[in-house]
Write a structure and sequence with these properties.
Blueprint: H1 26-30, H2 47-58, H3 76-95, H4 99-112, H5 117-129, H6 133-146, H7 151-161, H8 170-187, H9 192-204, H10 210-222, H11 227-239, H12 243-256, H13 260-272, H14 276-289, H15 294-306, H16 310-323, H17 329-340, H18 344-357, H19 360-379, H20 383-396, H21 403-410
Helix pairs in contact: 2-4, 3-4, 3-5, 4-5, 5-6, 6-7, 7-8, 7-9, 8-9, 9-10, 9-11, 10-11, 11-12, 11-13, 13-14, 13-15, 14-15, 15-16, 15-17, 16-17, 17-18, 17-19, 18-19, 19-20, 20-21
């Protein structure tokens, strides 16, 4: 998994290229190729630019069907025209990796036509790409109610529920993810992505037997160029002691990988096996064409951290916070980086920013990180700072059993 409570194998599925939620060209049409940038915060999008992109959301019309200036109701043709324009706006912003602007457009579209699943599906994808899984789950569940025969939505929701978030019933979520993947296959039996997702969900639930391997191999038989299935099969084969076959599967994955998310799938599998060095060149290939790819920035930061390049890791992770400022994942990974270095001040600052954007699942994760910070303060004989951190953790997760004793110990 990535960043402790972050992304598992299912994230690497490209919801745009594995089915028709986004066409394969969605990212490349709207965004010309860029040269690979030097890694420095000064050359990334500035915090001011991030604020500018999120400001679009504040200007959204308050009521569906209203004209923003006069408040008068729009006619059905006007609503349809505006709706299509918002979908296009969201798609184009997504193509430029402007996730906040894309989210804003799709969110306004859901309010304009709340019974049309298209905008909810697209909004779910944006949340998914920015690793905000609780919101992605809500959007996809809404879309499923509106369109219960859409295989892609079953696939997407299965992908979300396969994530190892800080939820109280992970086992139940994984079981539902398996059922949803099977439903996607039932509706669309020739979907390589659906079979690959079934394998990923089974693997996430700890099932490493014949059914999981069969699902990956079925995905490959349907689409021999589908790189994620080779990567996931390679990981499974290595887990089950078949190293030579695993190497061959990974080689096929790299050979067939073309889309950015396919490269991320392979890098993710490498990192799940503690093979971070092998993931780095793949991730840099993604950033050469999309320097603001949120998941890639985090994965690369993590890989560099594991390889001892702390400064490089920090630079990429800060760039990720600017690429998607309303997402918690990058803040969480930065906090872990600083905690490993036993740097207390930056850890507390990053956690404060992360707590401000964390969703329900992530709040429990932030609580755990604040508790670790409190332990670090206590280790350095700083009881007042430790107490402050423990209380912050308790405010985020009041049921965390380990906190009461630590608070009491530092109140003396």
């Amino acid at each position: 998994m990535i960043v402790g409570l972050w992304v598992g194998s299912a994230f690497a599925q490209d919801l745009g290229s594995s089915n028709k939620l986004f066409p394969k060209s969605a990212k490349t049409e709207a965004k010309p190729k860029k040269k690979s940038p030097a890694v420095s915060k000064s050359k990334r999008r500035t915090p001011g630019a991030a604020k500018q992109s999120t400001a679009v959301k504040k200007a959204a019309p308050p009521l569906a069907g209203d004209n923003s200036a006069s408040g008068t109701a729009m006619s059905s043709p006007e609503i349809e025209q505006k709706y299509k324009a918002l979908l296009l706006e969201g798609k184009n912003a997504f193509g430029r990796s402007e996730l906040a602007a894309s989210e804003s457009a799709y969110d306004r579209a859901t309010k304009l036509k709340p019974k049309d699943p298209s905008a909810f599906i697209s909004l779910g994808i944006i949340y998914y790409y920015s690793l905000r899984f609780e919101l992605a789950e809500k959007a996809f569940r809404k879309a499923l109610v509106l369109d219960p025969k859409n295989a892609e939505v079953y696939f997407a929701l299965s992908s979300v529920l396969s994530q190892p978030v800080a939820a109280p019933d992970l086992s139940g979520r994984y079981e539902e993810a398996i059922d949803l993947a099977r439903k996607a296959i039932e509706i669309k039996p020739n979907s390589a992505a659906a079979f690959d997702q079934l394998g990923a969900a089974l693997e996430r639930d700890g099932l490493l037997g014949a059914e999981t391997e069969s699902a990956y191999r079925k995905a490959i038989s349907i689409d021999p160029s589908y790189a994620p299935a080779y990567a996931h099969l390679g990981r499974l084969l290595r887990k089950t002691g078949r190293g030579d076959a695993a190497r061959q599967a990974y080689a096929s994955a790299i050979k067939n990988a073309g889309e950015p998310m396919e490269l991320i799938a392979i890098a993710d599998s490498f990192q799940s096996e503690q093979r971070s060095a092998e993931s780095i060149p793949l991730l840099k290939r993604v950033l050469a064409g999309d320097r603001d790819n949120y998941a890639t920035l985090i994965l690369l930061g993590r890989a560099l951290s594991r390889n001892g390049d702390i400064r490089g890791a920090e630079s990429y992770l800060w760039a990720a916070t600017q690429a998607s400022p309303m997402s918690f994942a990058a803040f969480g990974e930065l906090a872990r980086l600083y905690l490993r270095q036993e740097v207390t001040g930056p850890t507390e600052s990053v956690l404060a920013k992360g707590a401000a954007v964390a969703d329900g699942f992530e709040r429990r994760e932030v609580a755990g990180l604040f508790e670790q910070l409190g332990d670090l303060y206590a280790k350095h004989k700083m009881p007042n700072d430790a107490l402050r951190s423990y209380k912050k953790a308790m405010s985020l997760d009041a049921l965390r059993a380990s906190l009461a004793g630590k608070v009491a110990a530092n109140c003396r």
